[in-house]
């Protein structure tokens, strides 16, 4: 803290035109080149935003108070900043950058704010929803590599709302996890479970993010979907969801998650399927095959995309731990 | 909320390249053109930031959790988001945009997070600090227009730390406002008060903003200063501060507030001054003349600056309520 021990280039008389370079300079004394780069781009965009909009003091104060509210409504089971990122399209973008997909492999979708770490592991064929009002269904899946080989022992996290469109954590009187489970794929890459047919629901809009949506004349609805997350060492972490075809919000998802390749159909189980899985004929049935990409392939694709994008942007960077930093050599 | 009643252009299969235009489109349905413009620029910069840095999911999550903490440590008397804006140079920038100054008039400086609305009005000659450890001083001021005419009845808000470098609100056991007051300029534009000589102090660095400063190897110190805020109908609201010459942090203020024209010197009061103000000879004495700009002149200057800047940036905008909005005609 002794000012004689920090080497800061002298600054004074900062104004609209010189504040950015000065802030970047003072932020560039650390020994983490990635942080230096992130801060340089952050300050540049933040300042350019203010300069391009001629942001007023009143607007600035309104924005800061909004950000306070987003933080203060956040709890262990409601992450309003993830929600804000979701409705601004940032979550979709970051996932697309970080988890590029090869053709023919399962695309990613938004995580959303309702994943928890308390789901219980169930075995194939078990149920993951206790909601008697929901329409029963069975979901039969495989998880394979791009060549079609099954992947055994993948940890699969699955979560969905109840029939009222609420996740378990949204009920104040809940007694434990519901509408969520963890499964492991077997040696054929298979896992299947009983659940309820997903319904469309509005994202929580009783907080600051809901107020923003209202100001923007946007609805808060998400089309009916079921979340899936896949994890196994050596394979790229996959966060995705399956969406129901024909949902009224299919092309206006409040958080931009829908992809054509992730749209599915529940069909009435024919007699042979019903018998195989021990459910009444006509029970809603979904079959889906997921395809994972290896860590290595994803890493290479991510690096290639990053370098290509940086080149197109004319930025002089190199990759350090697979992330761009300024190339000062 | 009925999807048939909202006209949203269909969206699906959003990716790195098309997410920005789609987000902007869905955000542009409102009837407030200023909000539409702010959101368009916000989303553009936010997305470009992620694309230019190839922001990873891990970094994104770290950033969102940081923003939650900034909101959650904020209270009525500690606005951590103002602090964050201050150390990123945004506060200085917004003030410079919103309150442009004509040559020869008093420049602005950062508000900081410690202004409150509970200071008591005192009459000229009264004291505003009860700290017996502080070095006593008298501050003798005038407030005038650019032509040198005194401005009567200006509400002046003044605040400073105690001798330990803390504002009253930073003491858990405080009983009321201290080190802050409100005064009114008299018919000669004069006001004077007793205070203590300001000391340098670190901005609160026990929270997330302090952690960020540490990561960036920046110190949290502000040079010794006294805050002033001027308010009178017809005159541009002036938020400023006076800084002590020779302070060790004069050229490395953690929040970028120092300007040459705002650097002052406390001198020992000579015999005549001491007699005039009824203090012992040699008491530290500061004389300063503030110059306000009229609302109208500021508005014109702000408009001119905005249009000039927009033209230089090549942005097709017009001013609505003195703020840029897209010019769609």
UniProtKB/TrEMBL annotation, chains A, B:
Keywords: Dioxygenase, Iron, Metal-binding, Oxidoreductase. Its cofactor is Fe(3+). Transmembrane segments: none annotated. The keyword Ribosomal protein does not apply. Signal peptide: none annotated. GO terms for biological process: catechol-containing compound metabolic process. The keyword Iron applies. Residues 129-292 form the Intradiol ring-cleavage dioxygenases domain. GO terms for molecular function: catechol 1,2-dioxygenase activity; ferric iron binding. Residues 32-102 form the Catechol dioxygenase N-terminal domain. Gene3D superfamilies: Aromatic compound dioxygenase (2.60.130.10). CDD domains: 1_2-HQD (cd03461). Belongs to the intradiol ring-cleavage dioxygenase family. This is Intradiol ring-cleavage dioxygenases domain-containing protein. It comes from Amorphotheca resinae ATCC 22711.
């Amino acid at each position: 803290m002794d000012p004689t021990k920090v080497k800061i280039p002298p600054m004074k008389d900062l104004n609209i035109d010189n504040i950015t370079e000065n802030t970047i300079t003072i932020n560039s004394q650390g020994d983490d080149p990635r942080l230096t780069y992130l801060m340089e781009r952050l300050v540049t965009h933040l300042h350019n935003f203010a300069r391009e909009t001629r942001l007023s003091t009143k607007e600035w104060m309104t924005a800061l108070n909004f950000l306070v509210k987003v933080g203060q409504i956040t709890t262990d089971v409601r992450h309003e900043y993830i929600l804000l990122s979701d409705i601004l399209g940032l979550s979709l973008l970051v996932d697309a950058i970080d988890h590029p997909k090869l053709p023919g492999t399962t695309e990613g979708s938004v995580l959303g704010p309702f994943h928890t770490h308390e789901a219980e592991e169930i075995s194939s064929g078990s149920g993951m929803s206790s909601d008697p009002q929901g329409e029963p269904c069975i979901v039969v899946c495989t998880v394979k590599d791009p060549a079609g080989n099954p992947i055994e022992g993948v940890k699969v996290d699955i979560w969905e709302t109840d029939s009222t469109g609420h996740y378990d954590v949204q009920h104040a009187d809940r007694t434990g996890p519901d509408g969520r489970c963890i499964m492991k794929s077997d040696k054929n890459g298979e896992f299947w479970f009983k659940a309820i047919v997903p319904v469309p629901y509005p994202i929580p809009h009783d907080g600051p993010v809901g107020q923003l949506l209202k100001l923007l004349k946007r609805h808060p609805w998400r089309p009916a979907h079921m979340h899936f997350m896949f994890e196994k060492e050596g394979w790229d972490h996959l966060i995705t969801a399956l969406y129901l075809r024909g949902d009224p919000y299919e092309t206006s998802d409040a958080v931009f998650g829908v992809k054509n390749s992730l749209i599915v159909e529940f069909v009435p189980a024919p007699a042979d399927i019903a018998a195989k899985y021990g459910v009444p004929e006509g029970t809603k049935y979904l079959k889906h095959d997921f395809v994972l990409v290896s860590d290595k392939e994803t890493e290479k694709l991510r690096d290639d995309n990053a370098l290509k994008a940086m080149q197109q942007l004319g930025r002089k960077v190199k990759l350090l731990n697979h992330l761009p930093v300024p190339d000062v050599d």
